[in-house]
Amino acid sequence: MIEVLQFDFMRNALAAGLLASVICGIMGTLVVVNRIVFLAGGIAHAAYGGIGLAFFFNWPYLPGTIGFSLFAAMVMAALSHTAKHRADTIIGVVWALGMAFGIILIDMTPGYNVDLMSYLFGSILTVPRSDLLIMVIVGVVMTALVVYYYQDILAMSYDEEFAQIRGVPVKKLYFGLIGMLAVTIVLVIQVVGLILVIALLTIPPFIVEKYANSLVQMMVASSLLGAVFTVSGLWFSYRYNLTSGASIIMVSGIVFLVFFLMDKIRGADQKVRA
Question: Residue 166 has what pLDDT?
């Protein structure tokens, strides 16, 4: 792996992957414990509408995509919060409409033919230093917000009714969390792709959830595990000439299946002994 780092693009890819691992480790923990994985997936897919707007009107990528994603995220959050029994249906509808809207706008963009696969798996090997700087800023701001509101987030994540009794502004905090998640997803999508964002948001926190004793431990362990997946996936992609994003996802998925099967076997053994 050391000889790979002699190339600038591999150093940038490694830095981008590690930054994405930290960002997704923190946000992914909040996504998993608040059980909003489907909502996170809806935001990520609805972001295609913003991508389509940016290309169709020749806007800069970030303002157009972040604006549309924030709008879609707030719609999904508001409707799912007021009609929890239909939340999955509402999110699915907005998810599909956002993607369809974006793809149609890209098809209608004159003289432009964008490869949507680049937004699915990203272009981590071509990440410029400017994007790395943006990711650092986002990571610092997001970490600062989570640290500042940690006690309120902790109360809301594990017992919403208790948090309300304590005077925690649960609704505002929930919408703030969704907004922060939307911005995070958009910024990381352009670097590592839609599928890798969802993988890093969900797989590491799910694996470490049973072994962590606190929310902070879960965030740290998820970030470290995501970093391991990223480094391993990049090595496999370089060694065997594979797509980097897909390699990272495959490593994550295999480890997830191993832990899942180990939990099932352990649970079966405990039942037999009982």
Answer: 87
